[in-house]
Amino acid sequence: MNNSYVTQKNWWKESAAGIPMLITETPGPKSKVMHANTTKYMKGLSGQVKLFPVCFKEGAGITMTDVDGNKYLDFSSGIYVTSLGHCHPKISEAVSFWAKKLMNAHDFTTPVKEKLMEKMASILPGNLNAIQLYSDGTTAVEASIRAARAISGKHEFISAYRDFHGKTLGSVSCAQMYRGEVHSYGPTRAAGFYMVPRPDPYRPLWSKTDGTIDTNAYIRFYENFLIEGTVGNVAAFILEPVQGWGGSIFPPDDFFPKLKKLCDKYGILLIDDEVLAGMGRTGDWLTLNHWGVIPDIVTFGKSFGNGFPVTAMVVSEENGDALEKISASSSYGGNPMACAASLASIEVIEDEDILQNVNTVGEYFMKRMLKMKEQHPIIGDVKGKGFLLGIELVKDKKTKEPFIEAGTLVYQKAFKRGLAWIPAGHILRMSPPLIMSEKYAAMGMDIIEDTITEVEKEFGYN
Ligand SMILES: Cc1ncc(COP(=O)(O)O)c(C=O)c1O
């Protein structure tokens, strides 16, 4: 494998000089034409693209440049994907090396796969070291469902309101999609898949007398649901460690430890879908590491290949046979380019002290957001860990009514000021590249805060 890249923590800084750099109104004239030409044929775009139809031509580190020459500060990493910056030289070099040498060898071993397997086993907790590779998150989730069935011999699954796990039939059965979409083409939840509420500290369903969220009440509800609402054949709980699509919603610290205890009591597996939150985004390889919980099955995606489509499903060693039973391999999973992208990404996280940066700058983000919450009438809640962040906009801090119109306006106006990002409705989601220094973190937060102030004025606040 090519080792010519020499680690340089600051490889991206030159490309960030002078950003944001805006030379036309955005979206600019070329963007508009190209978007119109494309969408004549391409359908089914996400809401964010429809609201801000810009056309990007390149990315470097923490910046993205559109076809009109406007250069943006990236606060989304694609969609939580290019976490080590756009076109990290080591990762691009590793992929292009194998693109010229060997693109696919079925699921035979290759030298780069050997290295990746060893590297993954070294970073994963406990006995999590029976691995299979895929090309998108939803396929890894599908595999986790099949593996859980093979391990447990059971067939029911429990997920949670506002969890998201992908868009194929099994994973959509564990996910909440927009109501209109789901109902417009018939039932999408397969039989035996259930949803339960999970704790959102800002909007608790069950609280203690002091007003704080009551995790025990959720766990009691689950226990009751297992007995009354299922046929006693539950294979697994399948959950995101943090709800990403749902708006960066972190559970209380005691939730996963208590849930794992409940799972163990009933012989139920815990599938931890780390496609969005894993591989450094919250400051550790797995977000569940923060709570000392080792899942039975884990999925990775997005940051796992820093933009190259490579994902993984991992079970513990003692359950490795399940991967034989489900014939776990696929056509593209683990191709040499994919393995190279993933191996290089993990090495970059290690060599460039990325977890340390995420934890340090993450603290800055949290402090800044807490201050903003105090000062702004429409900021109801702020949440996050590391570089997985959210600001929830509400019409009134007491009623907590979601302020979707403000969310949409803040999104569009901040983009116009040079911030490339992907909020969701009234929750301003932020997922900057993990290489970002405090200087650029502050620049992005300044843009967001200035925009919130402007939008508050437009809506008649302060
Ligand atoms: C937690 C989680 N799981 C699975 C998926 C599906 O991944 P993909 O879009 O690569 O199929 C996503 C995508 O956003 C996700 O956030």
How would you summarize this macromolecular structure in one to three sentences?
This protein is an alpha/beta fold and 462 residues long. Helix content is 39%, strand content 15%.
Any overview of this molecule?
The protein is α/β, with parallel strands linked by helices and 462 residues long. The chain has two domains: 13-84 and 353-458, Aspartate Aminotransferase, domain 1 (Alpha-Beta Complex), CATH 3.90.1150; 89-351, Type I PLP-dependent aspartate aminotransferase-like (Major domain) (Aspartate Aminotransferase, domain 2, 3-Layer(aba) Sandwich), CATH 3.40.640. 39% of the residues lie in helices and 15% in strands. It is built from 16 helices and 14 strands. It has helices spanning 13-16, 29-39, 47-51, 77-80, 89-101, 111-123, 137-152, 169-172, 179-184, 215-228, 255-266, 321-325, 336-351, 354-375, 404-416, 438-458; strands at residues 56-60, 63-66, 71-74, 128-134, 156-160, 193-196, 234-239, 269-273, 297-300, 311-316, 379-385, 388-393, 419-420, 427-430. The strands form three sheets. The chain has a seven-stranded mixed beta sheet, sandwiched between helices. A four-stranded mixed beta sheet has the order 1-2-3-13. It has a three-stranded antiparallel beta sheet with strand order 11-12-14. Helix 6 (111-123) crosses helix 13 (336-351). The longest helix has 22 residues, at 354-375. The model has no long low-confidence stretch (mean pLDDT 95). The structure holds pyridoxal-5'-phosphate. Pyridoxal-5'-phosphate (PLP) is lined by residues 136-138, 141, 164-166, 240, 244-245, 273, 275-276, 301.
